[in-house]
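re: that chain from earlier
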Amino acid sequence: MTKTAVSIVIPVYNEEENIRKLHTKLSDVLLAITGNYEIIFVDDGSTDNSFAILNELNNEGNSVKVIKFRRNFGQSAALSAGFDYSKGDVIITMDGDLQNDPADIPKLLDELEEDDYDVVCGWRFDRADTKLKKSFSRIANRLRRSFTAEDIHDSGCTLRAYKRECIADLELYGEMHRYIPALLLWKGYKIGEVKVRHHERKYGTTKYSWRRVVKGFLDLIVVTFWQRFSRRPIHVFGGFGLILCIFGGIVSLYLVMQRLFFNMSLADRPLFIVSIFMVLVGVQFIVSGVLADIMLKVYYGQKERKPYLVEVVVE
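^ sequence. v structure.
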């Protein structure tokens, strides 16, 4: 197949009022940049007329590819599918709710080329969201910067440009799409950012909720652990285990010496029970580290698996 210069990946979930307007704006921008592009819409289990509208756009011959999931798998899975089915040298991701502005795409591409970045992230410096949503976002960004080495301003902005090699072996699940820059930085890729516009949502309803905040925080813990100990989990589990074993062993030895040389009873010494418990827990931590190492070897040796199920692909 002919290689496509630019691929646009857009997750869609119940955005029937936004799809055609977004496609029109995108087409105008992309035609001014290159005639060699594709627009990939990933229908993440929509229950409205989103797929029917996407199918119409494909039938009209608009360089549109549609991937339809069997059910709702989430934004991370939708982006992962878009990456897998894209053919472009540069992949640009954006939301399907018209809050990201297609007119900012040239800025992303210019920054990607001029400063030789591997990834360029959008920064919604003047967000058109509610105060509550912006507050949650600020807290999330601070937590992310404190846990990871990545320091971009806006991890929640979907508008990004990637060189193809960046996303070749990227694994996404849960709410991991927020931490793609952190994952890529950990792999050694160069990350940049540019200020982009952000518009108020006019049609449809937001998919943002407190559940996504909780899931995002839990995924942040996973990302942090993966960055630091993904190759050798025995280092963290074994470290805790050794500390507990050594400390519990010293206390146990001290109490046993008191029993042997000073005839002190251990029956009424809760500290003795605690010290034995610490040794046992420490051994369990070490064993867990060994098992985690074995599971990691299995993980790296297994066949490629995807976090989604595709019902149909319309090309």
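The two ends are 13 Å apart (CA to CA).
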